[in-house]
Automatic annotation (TrEMBL):
Pfam families: GRAM, RabGAP-TBC. One of its GO terms (molecular function) is calcium ion binding. InterPro entries: EF-hand-dom_pair, EF_hand_dom, GRAM, PH-like_dom_sf, Rab-GAP-TBC_dom, Rab-GAP_TBC_sf, TCB1D9/TCB1D9B_PH-GRAM1, TCB1D9/TCB1D9B_PH-GRAM2. May act as a GTPase-activating protein for Rab family protein(s). CDD domains: PH-GRAM1_TCB1D9_TCB1D9B, PH-GRAM2_TCB1D9_TCB1D9B. Keywords: GTPase activation, Repeat. This is TBC1 domain family member 9. GO terms for biological process: system process.
Length: 1177
């Protein structure tokens, strides 16, 4: 039957209600934990024990426990109706009810409508069929009238979703995928409960005899996920994180559960690896908008396997598949297999893996028709293509539906082709001529060198072999078809292993890699990229320029500007197509070889296929894919050459050699004419060829390697062996290879024939399957990406540990919290795009950045001044100050800078920080608060055209220790001063010395109000020179330590005198202040309420409705009133309580511990990554 992955029925049984009717479900124990209240020969009405009257006590406790263990829906359905025939022991649930009234309605309907009818039947099977059909008919009618689709969430699953969100306090954005009954092992005690798998978390809940257990693990924190068996636990899943290990067992279907866990963990790893991971495959956002059923993720996995199997473009999605047979004219047989249909392709693969496979792009299809059925050929379907090939499929069970689907996709494809032709119709063929010219130039160079260096007879021999190969391929095309629609069989593979002819190599590489499909569907794309990238410069283009002349320098094609220019265009175009990869060393070597056999545009699309499909993640900035395959290679070596594995591990040889082998497909370590044979096999078979060949190289040198004493000796042996690999069939000139590994003066290794080496790899290691490699890759990807994350953390901490008083352990804990909050926001939405905040290609400090909403969460949890309703407003002010480059994002260094000041800064630093966050205008960014402690810690923004001299100048300025002059700080106006007062009052609301601090704050605010008034007397707004302004500035000179202690010891009664001494040596100033201060009075803390502002001294407070970011200008605000930081500092120094409060260091460890157990998602939540089991009762 046709299996569609977009509309398939979910794994769990559908439970759709109409007056609480449910699809009949078999029940094993009819009386366990249930009491029968009504009964007749066919139906039983039961009530759950422990519900209703007498539901408490031991019975209620036992039922509550077993509800969790056995039946997730029992709590919401305490009543049910069972169907049973008189002589049968099998019961069927046909109705649920949450109340006696509901279930009674169902019972009465059954008695009135079904009992008499059932008595007519003689056969019990007929009765069962009739009852089940009747109930299903009622439900189907209800679904039809209410437009309920088959794939909508079932009632049972909806209950699980509600339970999941309630138990684990998850937001609505966190989508549950599926849930399973299992046991969790806490020590030696199993806890039976439910495992909930959501998009971002693995959760477990158990309730046993009054004791509750919860576990939540973030997928992004999983370091290992494995399924294995022991004598005690035949089927178990082990989930490991950095700090703990968790074991689950007793699954009803462990394979399905583990497969889903792998999919979800893989999604999390993609998100960590790539800043596009949160929008990967365009299906993840779709899942986030609607409850992502397990079937949707299954469809996603099926599409990935489908694309990998047939080398299709990354955006191709499988629509469905069906069993069928294919008539193969080359052997006149009907081959059994499966047909796959997607938006743009029809594909076929035989049940016997190597028998036959077929790819038919819909753009090539001309006719799809249903042929006449017969006994020999039931339900046949004929598909004709443009190259006059006809494919005959038969035994199609859903032929009509299939033809309709193909017709729909064909209509879409036709319109696309028409649109593309309209756009590209005017394109000239000049680019093709350039590409052809490069290939022909290379061929000319080869012929010239060949005829100069080789005898004619030897050349003729090589040509004869080449001619025979070409004839073999032409015969193959005649029999099996040519082009993308050819039949691919075991014979095709045999021809590839014998070597592809030189002049067919480019064509067949395009065909086998699938690059031909992307090139055909993107006409003009490469030319546009080349045009857009011309004259543009960035880090990638600089690296490309540096490596251009290192790309096969021994080959004549790249000893002139023509070849170099083509290589530059291809590499630069790809860097602009995929900025996440840009350019990586080794890409130049691979691309050089592609250009030798393909036109420029073809080489570009071959590079796309390599980087994005065939070698995923190999060429990103951290070569993650190559590291993953290095781990896979180690695993394979352990399995296939176990006697060598321990020795190689001890010498650390595998990790050293494998990167160069894999990244360049042996092109950098093997003679060129031999390495291209490896590339032939790779494009046909994929990565398994590289693993097979690598294992063969180790196996061939096993005895020499076992006797090695160090890694240098082992590298020399392998290097000499690979240098000796030759291709005796090659018509290419002998090119001196500069890529050999370590060599010595010993005897050269005997020649090794490349074709024998390849065949040997298939004979010994051909059993390695692609699906096994993918399974190993998943396991290694977890390890590699988590290791990279740990390295990033260590590098960030090492970078800033000398700039902050926090310890290394504290910084690591803070980094974990910072990263966790960032990821949480990416999962559940934020005010900014996750892709703008998470970019693994950036320097370590910039990879995770935080916006304001995220910062508010951590500010409330970690910063000591966060308190009360004023927290969000204060967080906004702090964020503005820390965001020195005004991009609305702060990195970890900036975050730590602000936290360091608040926790470990001295009195002056803390007060300066407090002052600056209030003097900061709404949209204007002052210099970074990093000046407060050490120096400006800023990261220079990326520039389109780098100027290294500018970088050096900026770096020199940043590294110079700066002493910020207090006089450089702007004055605080009256509205800003009022906001500062509000902050001070809110800051002390939970302090033990709360009252004393309130009174001290009232004294200081009164003092500062008077200072502002005094300042006005000497600041005439009209006609004042800069010199006069400087002379009349009210400033506080630096105080000695002795004077400061005198001020701290002064009593409140001496406040006026002390402040007068601080203000000025001018007699007039002192006397004026004395006159004003004589009439002053202390302000009480209630005078600074959230909805009031202070006006001129001596006046009452006026009502006011404030607004975030500052106060509105009105008649109650004195625009000429202002104070300086010196005055603010001096005033605070007069109050011992405030001095002690700001000088007291803050212990960050306790705040980190609290933050790890709390997450804010609109309300308090749970722990941040790997939550411990919480027990209650």
């Amino acid at each position: 039957a046709w299996i569609s992955f977009r509309t398939a029925t979910p794994y769990w049984t559908t439970h759709l209600r109409f007056k609480m009717w449910v699809n009949p479900e078999e029940v094993l124990m009819a009386s366990a934990l249930w009491m029968t209240e009504r009964a007749n020969p066919y139906f039983i009405l039961q009530k759950r024990k422990g519900h209703g009257d007498g539901g408490g006590g031991l019975a209620g406790l036992l039922v509550g426990t077993l509800d969790v263990v056995l039946d997730s829906s029992a709590r919401v359905a305490p009543y049910r109706i069972l169907y049973q025939t008189p002589d049968s022991l099998v019961y069927w649930t046909i109705a649920h009810g949450s109340s006696r009234k509901e279930i009674t309605e169902n019972w009465e309907w059954l008695e009135q409508n079904l009992l008499q009818t059932l008595s007519i039947f003689e056969n019990e099977n007929d009765i069962t069929t009739f009852v089940k059909g009747k109930i299903q008919g009622i439900i189907a009618e209800y679904n039809k009238s209410h437009d309920i689709r088959e794939d909508d969430d079932t009632d049972k699953f909806k209950e699980a979703i509600a339970k999941f969100h309630k138990l684990f306090v998850m937001p609505e954005e966190e989508k549950l995928v599926n849930y399973y009954s299992c046991s969790y092992w806490k020590g030696k005690v199993p806890r039976q409960g439910w495992l909930y798998l959501s998009i971002n978390h693995l959760c477990f809940y158990s309730y046993l005899l009054g004791k509750e257990a919860k576990l939540v693990i973030r997928w992004a924190d999983v370091t290992q996920l494995e399924k294995n068996a022991t004598l005690l636990l035949p089927d178990m899943v082990r989930v490991s994180t950095r700090c703990s290990e968790h074991v689950f067992s007793v699954f009803l279907n462990i394979n399905e559960t583990f497969k889903l866990m792998e999919q979800l963990a893989n999604i999390a790893m993609r998100q960590l690896l790539d800043n596009k991971g949160f929008e990967q495959d365009r299906s993840l956002p779709k899942l986030k908008k609607k409850s992502p059923k397990k079937v949707d993720l299954d469809a996603r996995a099926k599409s990935e396997r489908y694309r990998a199997l047939f080398r299709l473009p990354k955006d191709e999605k499988l629509d469905g598949h069906t069993d069928c047979t294919l008539w193969t004219p080359f052997n006149k047989m009907h081959i059994l297999g499966q047909m796959f249909v997607s938006t743009n392709y029809i594909c076929f693969t035989s049940k016997e893996e190597t028998a036959c496979s077929l790819i038919i792009p819909l753009r090539e299809v001309t006719i799809v028709e249903k042929a006449d059925s017969c006994n020999v050929l039931p339900s046949p379907l004929s598909i004709s293509t443009k190259n006059k090939m006809t494919f005959l499929f038969a035994n199609l069970k859903d032929r009509d539906f299939l033809v309709q689907r193909i017709s729909d996709f064909l209509q879409q494809t036709t319109s696309k082709i028409y649109f593309e032709r309209e756009i590209t119709g005017s394109l000239s063929s000049s680019d093709d001529e350039v590409g052809t010219a490069l290939v022909s130039y290379i061929s000319t160079c080869e012929v010239e060198i060949r005829t100069a260096d080789e005898s004619f007879s030897l050349y003729s021999c090589f040509q004869a072999k080449e001619f025979l190969k070409e004839q073999a391929w032409k015969n193959h095309f005649t029999e099996y078809g040519q082009g993308v629609c050819m039949y691919r069989t075991e014979k095709t593979k045999e021809l590839v292993l014998q070597g592809i002819p030189e002049n067919m190599r480019g064509e067949l590489w395009l065909l086998f890699s699938g690059a031909i499909n992307e090139m055909a569907t993107h006409p003009g794309y490469y030319e546009d990229l080349v045009e857009k990238s011309m004259g543009k410069y960035n880090l990638a283009t600089e690296e490309i320029e540096r490596d251009l002349h290192r790309s096969l320098p021994e080959h004549p094609a790249f000893q002139n500007e023509m070849g170099i220019a083509a290589l530059r265009r291809v590499l630069t175009a790809y860097a602009f197509r995929n900025p996440n990869i840009g350019y990586c060393q080794a890409m130049n070597i691979v691309t050089s070889v592609l250009l030798l056999y393909a036109k420029e545009e073809e080489a570009f699309w071959l590079l796309v296929a390599l980087c994005e499909r065939m070698l995923p993640d190999y060429y990103n900035t951290r070569v993650v894919g190559a590291l993953v395959d290095q781990g896979v290679f180690e695993e394979l070596a352990h399995v296939y050459v176990p006697q060598l594995y321990d020795c190689m591990q001890a010498l650390s040889v595998i990790s050293t050699i494998s990167l160069s082998w894999f990244l360049t497909l042996f092109l950098s370590v093997m003679p060129f004419e031999s390495a291209v044979v490896v590339v032939d096999c790779f494009f046909y078979e994929g990565i398994k060829v590289i693993f097979q060949l690598a294992l063969s190289v180790l196996d061939a040198n096993i005895h020499q390697l076992l006797s090695c004493k160090d890694d240098g000796e082992a590298m020399t042996i392998l290097g000499r062996y690979l240098d000796s690999v030759t291709n005796k069939d090659s018509t290419l000139p002998p090119i001196p290879h500069l890529h050999s590994l370590l060599t010595d003066n010993g005897e050269p290794h005997p020649e090794v024939d490349i074709f024998k080496l390849v065949r040997s790899s298939y004979e010994k290691f051909g059993s390695i399957r692609a699906d096994v490699i993918e399974q190993m890759r998943f396991k290694q990807r977890l390890r590699v990406i988590q290791a990279i994350e740990d390295t990033t953390k260590r590098n960030v901490v090492r970078t800033i540990v000398t700039e902050t008083p926090f310890s290394i352990d504290e910084l690591e804990e803070l980094y974990t919290l910072f990263k966790a909050e960032h990821l949480t926001s990416c999962y559940w939405g934020s005010t900014s795009n996750p892709m703008s905040r998470h970019d693994p290609s950036l320097p370590y400090l910039e990879q995770y950045r935080m916006d304001l909403e995220q910062f508010k969460v951590l500010f409330a949890l970690l910063f000591p001044w966060a308190c009360g309703t004023h927290t969000d407003d204060l967080a906004l002010r702090v964020f503005r100050l820390l965001d020195h480059n005004a991009d609305a994002l702060i990195n970890f260094r900036e975050f730590i800078c602000g936290l360091s000041v608040m926790c470990h800064g001295d009195l002056t630093e803390k007060l300066k920080f407090l002052y600056k966050i209030h003097v900061l205008p709404g949209g204007l960014m002052l210099e970074s608060c990093l000046n407060v402690q050490h120096s400006v810690f800023c990261v220079v923004k990326k520039m389109q055209t780098p100027d290294y001299r500018m970088y050096l100048r900026l770096w020199n300025q940043e590294t110079k220790a700066k002493l910020e002059n207090m006089k450089d700080l702007p004055k605080l106006n009256q509205s800003q001063f009022i906001e500062l007062c509000k902050t001070l009052y809110n800051m002390f609301s939970e302090d033990p010395s709360e009252q004393e601090l309130y009174h001290a704050t009232a004294t200081v605010t009164s003092l500062l109000l008077e200072m502002g008034e005094v300042g006005k007397l000497f600041c005439s707004p009209a006609h004042k020179t800069d010199e006069e302004d400087e002379d009349e500035r009210i400033a506080v000179p630096s105080r000695s330590k002795q004077e400061r202690h005198q001020l701290e010891d002064s009593s409140p009664k001496d406040t006026a005198t002390s402040c007068a001494m601080l203000l000025s040596d001018d007699d007039t100033s002192v006397s004026s202040y004395s006159v004003l201060s004589a009439g002053s009075h202390e302000l009480q803390c209630e005078d600074i309420a959230e909805d009031t502002v202070l006006i001129r001294s001596g006046a009452a407070a006026a009502g006011h409705h404030g607004r975030r970011g500052g106060l509105p200008h009105s008649v109650s605000i004195d625009k000429d009133w202002a104070i300086t930081f010196e005055q603010f500092l001096a005033s605070v120094l007069t109050e011992q309580a405030l001095v002690q409060y700001f000088e007291k260091p803050v212990e960050i460890a306790a705040r980190i511990t609290n933050a790890k157990n709390v997450r804010k998602v609109g309300h308090q939540h749970m722990s941040l990554s790997d939550y411990e089991i919480s027990l209650s009762g």
